[in-house]
Write a structure and sequence with these properties.
This protein is an alpha+beta fold. It is built from six helices and six strands; from the N terminus they run βααββββαααβα. A hairpin with a 2-residue loop joins strand 3 and strand 4. The protein starts with a strand and ends with a helix. The relative contact order is 0.22.
């Protein structure tokens, strides 16, 4: 089997993988795109805080919700993150800081970052997602990502650096 390597940053790889996993877990394509983009953003924020690149937000006191009041947002577990979501006229959408993520912007982001490789990478990720029952995928998806994500230097040296994504490695995990 020929090598199938792509040089890309980790964020779009995580965005695409989280999107594919969300679809496998039953979310429609547009909702899954927003969930994928949110997971990558939440991961980047957490890593940036750990590395001292971003300041940790100040703790806000918890608001007590009135009995019987409907929550303004729901949390969707995906790849080890709890993603805030809101209902919109178009359906459920991930929201960061109360702002809905636009599925078209997430799709455009993936197309820009992967270029002509997007379909090939997405197909390999879909094969991997289908190789597992949804409940197993839900708990193991981030560990799978850690096995195929692009390798970059540790710490701040690896921040924003592109690495090599081996598409065959994704396919092998599906077997």
């Amino acid at each position: 089997m020929a090598t199938d390597r792509i040089t890309v940053n980790r964020a779009p790889v995580l965005t695409l993988w989280a999107t594919v996993v969300a679809e496998r877990l039953g979310y429609d394509h547009k909702t899954a795109l927003t969930l994928g983009k949110a997971v990558a953003g939440l991961n980047a924020q957490a890593k940036g805080q750990r590395l001292g690149i971003f300041e940790k937000p100040k703790e806000k006191p918890l608001k007590v919700q009135r009995k019987g009041a409907k929550p303004k947002e729901n949390l969707v577990p995906l790849l080890g993150r709890l993603v805030p979501t809101v209902k919109s006229p178009e359906g459920v959408r991930a929201a960061i800081k109360g702002e809905r993520i636009d599925p078209q912007s997430a799709e455009k982001y993936l197309a820009q970052k992967f270029g002509g490789d997007l379909i090939r990478v997405r197909t390999a990720m879909e094969e991997l997602a289908r190789a597992y029952k949804p409940d197993v995928l839900a708990t193991e998806a981030f560990r799978m990502y850690e096995k195929f994500r692009p390798s970059v230097p540790a710490g701040q040296k690896g921040w924003g650096v592109k690495g090599v994504l081996d598409v065959n490695a994704i396919r092998l995990l599906a077997r």
